[in-house]
Amino acid sequence: MSFGEPERYAGGGPSRPFARRTRAQVVAAAVCLVLGTGLIGGAVTGAWLADGPEGPGTRHAFTVAGDLWHDVPVDQLFPPTVQGGGAGPGEADRVWTRIAVAPDSGCKGAFDALLTRVLTPVGCERLLRATYTDATQSHVTTVGLLFTEADAAGMKALAGRFDRERLDRRGDLVPLPYAAKGTAAEGFGPEQRASWAISVLTDAPVVVYAVSGWADGRTVDEPQPAEDAMGSGATTAPAQAGLGHEARGLADRFERALRKRAGSATERPS
User: Fold this and answer.
1) Are strands 206-214 and 224-225 parallel, antiparallel or unpaired?
2) Bridge partners, 145 (sequence order)
3) What are the distances in angstroms from CA 199 to CA 174, 214, 251, 254?
4) Across 40-62, average pLDDT
5) Which strands form 139-147's sheet, in the order they lie side by side?
6) What is 147-172 written as a DSSP string?
7) Cα 234–201–249 angle (5° rounding)?
8) 42: buried, middle or exposed (CB in 10 Å: 19+, 13-18, 0-12)?
9) Would you tell me how many other CB atoms lie within 10 Å of the CB of residue 201?
């Protein structure tokens, strides 16, 4: 429709002028307006009060979470400093400092081939990564936020597969680190991966992961999943160094922060 000109029929002729309405037609139109408004209002309410398992607005929060990669400044997604109260071995406190942020990108070349195949069903909208070091600068940890193209059903399917097949424990499915030149993570390559944690969210189209290693570039023959490295009595080098705690501690904090931000973004004004 173009304003200022009469609408035209499909054949190109001008539209006919409005006919004079009868009283019955006016009443009928008013009834339709009232019913239509009610239906539209119900639809809007239904969209906000989505009957998700985690409460009102679940579906809307899922959508908002998927947009965070371009709606939230990098210093909020990846804060310069992250506090890890009780996150270390023996519930010791941790503080992590950001030393590098990767340019936002797609997923080409960002994962080993096998992990790429596992993640393919959910697609890749955008991948964001940053690398942190601990207070002593002896450890480095890359945190990744993979924003997928999947809907809630797709994320649940992938999460279910990870649970059934214990894919988060497989040493051939460890995410790659981000090694930035001129930083403590410069030597943090594939052979330096020591421990990792990966979570497939079902309330957001995001896969959150963290992979940790030593800042001195030492190689690791067998990376150990964070849950195993944090286990009581674990005696591997990554476990003794607390690298499982590094990976799990950062992954958990970024996962919680993402959920909180998506939830707060969907709050309606009172």
Assistant:
1) unpaired
2) 128, 208
3) 12, 22, 8, 11
4) 46
5) 81-84, 94-101, 126-133, 139-147, 206-214, 195-200, 224-225
6) E-S--HHHHHHHHHHHHHHTGGG-TT
7) 35
8) exposed
9) 20
- The pLDDT assigned to 163 comes to 97
Q: Among residues 50, 69, 74, which one has the least CA distance to residue 60?
A: 50
**Interatomic CA distance for residues 88 and 69, integer angstroms:** 28
User: Helices (DSSP H) in 51-110: which residue ranges?
Assistant: 58-66, 68-71, 74-77
> Do the strands 94-101 and 126-133 form a parallel or antiparallel pair, or are they unpaired?
antiparallel
- pLDDT-derived band at 14 (thresholds 50, 70, 90) equals very low
Amino acid at 98: R
> Which of 231, 254, 255, 257 has its CA nearest to residue 244?
231
Only one residue has tokens 């991948």, namely: 127
pLDDT one-digit tens code per residue, 21-39: 444 444 444 444 443 444 3
Range in 17-21, 27-31, 140-144, 201-205 the model is least confident about: 17-21
Which residue has tokens 């809907």? 151
**Which amino acid is present at 259?**
R
